[in-house]
Amino acid sequence: MTISPALRKHRQPAAHIGESSGPKEALSGSDSDNFAERLKDDILNAIAEHNRVIVAVNDVSYRTKNSADSLCEVIAGLVEKVLNEMYIPELLIEGGSTASAIVRRLGWKRFTPCREPLPGVVRMRVNAEQERFITIKPGSYIWPDTVLNKFNLTHL
Questions:
Q1: E-strand stretches of the chain
Q2: How many Cα neighbours within 13 Å face the side chain of 42?
Q3: What is the pTM of this model?
Q4: What's the CA gap between 25 and 34, in Å, rounded?
Q5: Rounded distance, CA 151 to CA 36, Å?
Q6: What are the chain's domains?
Q7: pLDDT tens digits, 102-156
Q8: Higher per-residue pLDDT: 10 or 79
Q9: Which residues contact 152 (CB under 8 A, 6 or more apart)?
Q10: Which residues pair with 4 in a beta bridge?
């Protein structure tokens, strides 16, 4: 996994500001919580420095259905740890399975759609937290320019 200050295009990671052990290590039993804990501080520091951060998986060689599901849970745990330490008003989440794991982990059940910049790319307000928004897009899409421009992000 990499922590990156900018978005990636065509699944290529952006410039690294931090790098941890790979997904295989993250999925090795009870080590997944330790993995998320180690990344949490790097993410918080990156947000403090850049006001945004991208967490991306850059090693897909391990992929199986079970490992992909487990990795979604690791990412959800990581998001939970970060949000417990810092208020982040806007989350951009790539992939339906990842989004599902995150919202389940955080206990978010109801949303109000705000905008659909492209079919399947939806920005929603989290009803339980009126000042928190999530934008979800399928993993097969690139981020639309309207979303990138809103957050001053660019493709590499």
A1: 2-4, 18-19, 54-56, 90-94, 111-118, 121-126, 133-137
A2: 18
A3: 0.75
A4: 10
A5: 25
A6: 2-150 (3.40.980.20)
A7: 999 999 999 999 999 888 899 999 999 889 999 999 888 787 787 777 777 665 3
A8: 79
A9: none
A10: 54
